[in-house]
């Protein structure tokens, strides 16, 4: 009886790994979107302080600064993580990845679920803390995988 070995290489056939350059442009586009939204959050926070100070005539109450801080905390600890997690889990693409026509998938080709998206975000944070070395791995990896891709068992590909 002949023993057959099954090799799991579904992504090797039919899909191409997104290049470092394509992923970098997608990241920059996401940064532009996120900084634009951050500008809106800052504007709301600044207006809260300005309105509570009678347009600079009096010192604003401490509550205005607390409210501004809460608005910014919501951006950093709610909006920012949800942007990535929801879009990866829903479409496999952030706005930048949509613009560059690339997509995040599991290594077996399945869509990214919520748990995988959260794990990928944790990897993003680790890559950032490690002076972005986790992102630089993309340039040297055969499958163009970053630290967060390895942690979450994902690939970024160019769909057909």
Keywords for this entry:
160 residues; mainly alpha; three-stranded antiparallel beta sheet; 3 strands; elongated; disordered N terminus
Q: How would you describe this structure to a colleague?
A:
A 3-stranded antiparallel beta sheet has the order 1-3-2. The model is unreliable at 3-11 (pLDDT under 50). The protein has helices at residues 20-51, 62-90, 95-99, 114-129, 133-140, 147-152; strands at 16-17, 103-106, 154-158. The relative contact order is 0.16. It has 6 helices and 3 strands; from the N terminus they run βαααβαααβ. The two termini are 39 Å apart.
Count the beta strands: 3
Average pLDDT:
88
| Strand line-up across the major sheet | 1-3-2
User: What is the overall silhouette?
Assistant: elongated
Outline the biggest β-sheet: 3 strands, antiparallel
Order of helices and strands: EHHHEHHHE
As a percent range, the share of strand residues is 5-15%
The radius of gyration computed from the alpha-carbon positions, rounded to a whole number of angstroms, is: 21 Å
User: What structural class do the secondary elements suggest?
Assistant: mainly alpha
Q: Give helix % range.
A: 55-70%
- Return residue spans where pLDDT drops below 50 for at least 5 consecutive residues: 3-11
Q: What distance separates the N and C termini?
A: 39 Å
């Amino acid at each position: 009886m002949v023993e057959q070995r099954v090799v799991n290489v579904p992504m090797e056939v039919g899909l191409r790994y997104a290049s470092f350059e394509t992923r970098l442009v997608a990241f920059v586009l996401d940064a532009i979107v996120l900084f634009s939204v951050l500008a809106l959050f800052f504007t709301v926070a600044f207006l809260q302080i300005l309105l509570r100070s009678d347009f600079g005539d009096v010192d604003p109450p401490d509550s205005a600064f607390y409210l501004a801080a809460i608005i910014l905390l919501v951006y950093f600890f709610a909006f920012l993580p949800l942007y990535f997690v929801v879009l990866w889990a829903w479409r496999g693409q952030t706005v930048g990845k949509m613009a560059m026509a690339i997509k995040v998938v599991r290594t077996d080709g399945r869509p990214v679920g919520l748990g995988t998206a959260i794990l990928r975000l944790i990897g993003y944070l680790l890559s950032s803390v490690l002076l972005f070395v986790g992102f630089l791995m993309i340039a040297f990896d055969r499958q163009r995988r970053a630290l967060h891709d390895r942690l979450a068992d994902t690939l970024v590909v160019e769909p057909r």
